[in-house]
Amino acid sequence: MSARGLFITVEGGEGVGKSTNIAFLEAQLRDRGVDLLVTREPGGTRLGEELRRLLLAVGEEALDPMAELLMMFAARAQHISTRIEPALAAGRWVLCDRFTDATYAYQCGGRGLDRRAVGTLEDLVQGPLRPDYTLLLDAPASTGMARARNRGELDRFELEELGFFERVRTTYLEMAESSSGRYHVIDASQPLEAVQQQLLKICIELTACWGVRHPQP
Ligand code: TMP
């Protein structure tokens, strides 16, 4: 049986360059022979993408924070059981754009929900599953918001006020501090080249440390 794959998550506020840098990481890891599943939350499955559409839509009815939280975990339960867990069990690596740390940052930090409620759902939905490695792309909330606004139409989260994103950022940085073994923080306000130099170093270290299972010819 193959060894379990590595579960990598990428986190950060709005406009920190997650998509560009995840595409860069994906290319670098594949070049090094990593058999990789690239996915995202909320999303990654039909149900998850449908829930994502509802979560991001700017609707007439305000979404209750607890309903929002449960929708995130409903999407996550489906994602774990049908995609993440089977990939890891088969020895594939998983590169996931956001995971439960986003719930702590947005639903607890941003919306003010109780961390214990999220902890209970985390245990219930994930069992022992936790990311092995988390990259936090960090930039001041005002920088990220300015970039997000330049991209065009804003979704339901991007319409929040600056204070919301400052609380999201603070929560991410607190988690990085308290789980420093798992977290790697990158200053995403640097030029893209400097960010990607750091990402390249991380790819080299991860593939060297964890060993890469080369696909069979
Ligand atoms: P994205 O467009 O950056 O991928 O993420 C979609 C939005 O969903 C983003 O504003 C953060 C938010 N989100 C939460 O609020 N809680 C969560 O658990 C996750 C995964 C995302």
Concise description?
It contains eight helices and five strands, in the order βαβααβααβααβα. The chain has 217 residues and is of the alpha/beta class. The protein has a single domain, classed as P-loop containing nucleotide triphosphate hydrolases (Rossmann fold), CATH 3.40.50.
CATH topology: the name is Rossmann fold
N-to-C SSE string, H for helix and E for strand: EHEHHEHHEHHEH
N/C terminus separation: 18 Å
Radius of gyration: 17 Å
What number of domains?
1
**Which architecture does the CATH hierarchy give at level 2?**
3-Layer(aba) Sandwich
Task: Explain what the structure shows.
By secondary structure, the chain is of the alpha/beta class. It has a single domain, classed as Rossmann fold. Helix content is 55%, strand content 12%. The protein has 8 helices and 5 strands. The chain has helices at 18-31, 46-56, 65-89, 100-110, 115-126, 141-150, 162-178, 192-210; strands at residues 7-12, 36-40, 93-97, 133-138, 183-187. A 5-stranded parallel sheet has the order 2-3-1-4-5, with helices on both faces. α3 packs parallel to α5 (115-126) and α4 packs across α7 (162-178). The chain is globular. The two termini are 18 Å apart. Thymidine-5'-phosphate binds at residues 40-42, 72, 97-98, 102-103, 106-107, 157. Residues 40-42, 72, 97-98, 102-103, 106-107, 157 line the site of thymidine-5'-phosphate (TMP).
